[in-house]
What we know:
- It is built from 9 helices and no strands.
- It has helices at 5-18, 31-39, 43-51, 54-57, 62-67, 72-81, 89-96, 100-113, 124-141.
- The mean pLDDT is 97.
Amino acid sequence: MIYTEQTKKALKLCFKAHMNxxxxxxxxxxxxxxxxxxxxxxxxxxxxxxxHDVVEDTPYTFSDLESMSxxxxxxxxxxxxxxxxxxxxxxxxxxxxxxxxxxxVKLADLRHNxxxxxxxxxxxxxxxxxxxxxxAIRMLEE
Length: 142
């Protein structure tokens, strides 16, 4: 993990925002963004990894993040990483590909979410989701 003023602020916000959330196996959700952040190679991608689901899955908004003085480069990546359900999934992924920060975070996110060992029970729905994620990974790696 890269520890700077910004990453420490993001760690605290990530923990606070996801504090009472659980993943599909009942583990604290916050372990997921922490896992992604550990893989990042610079400050901005580390912050984006920690905050990648905050706007999508918690009451926090982009205005909140801007008022906390997160860098504009991070906010831009987070806007791309926050999936608008009105946008088809592969279009969303194609937009992410254009931003190096968002692309690095999304690749780590997809790989972690594709790890079926994280699940207590694998369903047919999980297998379909994994295929979608594999297509997204291929697109981002092109």
